[in-house]
Amino acid sequence: MQNRILSALAVAVLGLTCTVAIGGTVVLNNGDHISGRITQLTQTRVVVNTSYAGGVVIKLSSVQTLISKSPVKLTAANGKTSMVTLAAAPGNQGWITHHVAAEHVKVIPADLPPLPLVKAAPPPPVPVSIFGPDWDNELDLGATNTTGNSNSTLFNGLIQFHYRHKPDNLLIALTGGYGVTNGSQSLGFFSSNVLWKRQLNEFKPRWAKRAFLFLQNTNLYDAIQGISIRSDTEGGLGYYLWDNKKSEFDLRAGPGYTYERFFHGQSYSYINGVAAAHFRYQLAKHVKFTQTAGYVSSLENVYNYQLSATSALYLGLPHIVRGMGLRFSFTDLYDNAAGTQGLKRNSTLLIAALTFKF
């Protein structure tokens, strides 16, 4: 009986020795050992042919060390292949490769076909907005002060929340400005704008998917033009002439309602018609240009109308502070009804501001 036990132990030891000699061992990060013939090694995976499970593919990120006295086909990052043996690095933290001359390599059939070289996928971009990747929020702050022949102090600001997740698009913007020149108020306005658009993706024709419904409300207070409140609410249909990552251009039109009151007490309210256009173009990775224009007119009195246009250039400065940038904008507002109050119908606003994405 004792002789049989000794014989069995001898066979087991001999078998283990032969396995290590002609095969190899994969040690995983969790401490598990996988024994077999290591046949292939790429930048991301390793193949082990085992007697109990056939070919096993293991992610290289799960491997602590590799050992193989038999040649292993190694595929480098540039796609070139070579035959190497593998030895454990000190402390079993990684492995060391030793190239084998071609005349000493025997062709060993693999249980699995050769693995393609898989490049690691780049990590997903980190969204700038703390609200998530579908939000593009912004805070603009600008100030100007002059002394000498003309003493003036001007402040302006904008806070904007923009949600884009097709088919929905929601914009909420609040804008304000105040200024004094030579002791007299030269700037004083506050406006709000809420615009919701929803694309009609449920329609099958490709051209119909570019159509969208919209609902918009804008409010304006302007101390210089004498406008106590002007509120416009419109809704209707719009259409994207094109819409991609680099640029977009849409047109929209529909009926609405306007209420306007001036400092002198006179007020107007009427059913209106609105037409508007929006254009965006990504000039470079951190440079964007936008153009918005709108026309609102009373359906009862064609001489009671307003025109507005805003051009803006955004320059991102992520190399200074992440989310930081500069915005230059020019706005032209024309209110034909203001002329009846003895006020100038046209006013312009040029703004340079520091912006922060959040």
Residue share in helices? under 10%
Report low-confidence residues grouped into runs of 5 or more: 1-21
Q: Topology as H/E string?
A: HEEEEEEEEEEEEEEEEEEE
User: Would you identify the CATH H-level superfamily of the largest domain?
Assistant: monomeric porin ompg
| Domain count | 2
- Order of strands side by side in the largest beta sheet? 8-9-10-11-12-13-14-15-16-17-18-19
What is the distance, rounded to the nearest whole angstrom, between the alpha carbons of the first and last residues?
80 Å
Number of strands: 19
CATH-derived architecture of the largest domain? Beta Barrel
CATH-defined fold name of the largest domain: Porin
Main sheet, how many strands, which sense, barrel?
A: 12 strands, antiparallel, barrel
Query: Can you tell me the CATH class of the largest domain?
Result: Mainly Beta
Structural class label: mainly beta
The overall pLDDT, averaged over residues, is 84
Q: How much strand?
A: over 45%
What's the Cα radius of gyration? Answer: 35 Å
Approximate shape: elongated
Number of helices: 1
Summary, kept brief:
The protein is mainly β. The chain is built from one helix and 19 strands.
Name its key features.
1 helix, SH3 type barrels, Porin, disordered N terminus, mainly beta, 2 domains, 358 residues, seven-stranded mixed sheet
Task: Explain this structure.
It is a single chain. The protein is elongated. The model is unreliable at 1-21 (pLDDT under 50). The longest helix has 21 residues, at 2-22. A 12-stranded antiparallel barrel has the order 8-9-10-11-12-13-14-15-16-17-18-19. Strands 1, 2, 3, 4, 5, 6 and 7 form a 7-stranded mixed beta sheet that branches. Helices cover 6% and strands 60% of the residues. The chain has 2 domains: 2-104, Roll (SH3 type barrels); 138-357, Beta Barrel (Porin). The protein has 358 residues and is mostly beta strands.
